[in-house]
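Here is an idea for our session: we take a single protein and study its fold together. Which protein we use is up to you, so please pick one and set it down. Once you have written the record down, we can walk along the chain together:
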Amino acid sequence: MSNRERTFIMVKPDGVQRGIVGKIIKRFEQKGFKLVALKMLWPSEQLLQQHYSDLSARPFFPGLVKYMSSGPVVPMVWEGLDVVRTGRVMLGATNPAESAPGTIRGDLCIQVGRNILHGSDAVESANKEIALWFTDAELVSWTPANEGWVYE
C-alpha cells in the first residue's frame, strides 16, 4: 500500500451536533495519518443523492438523504499507508451495537441511524467521493520538503 493512499471520512450531522468532530480528528492524527482536506458545509440533497447513489435502491435511501441534509457535515480527506482499510477498522461496524470498544462508533454512538461517520470502503470509492466533495485546489499536497517525517 502506498503512503499516498487517500480516504474520505465525513462526520455526519449527529457527530457535528454532538460536538465530537475534534475527538474524531484526534483519533486519525494520533494514528499517524495526514489531514489533506477539511471543510464544514450544509450539503444539498442533490449532492447527497450523488454521494449515496449506490444505495439509491435501498428502502432507507430517502430517509438517509433527508437526515444527511438536516444539518452541517464535516467532510475530510486523510492520507497514509493503507488508510482506507485502517480507517474503516477505526470507524467500527456500521451498526454501533456491533462495533468493538476502542473503535470510534463503539466508543461514541449507539444507533445505526445516527452512527456519526461515513468512511470510504475502497480506494476506488474514496477517489470518487473525494472528487465529489473537494476540488483539486482544496487538497493539500505534501511537498518533498515535508516528506520523511512520519513513517517514511
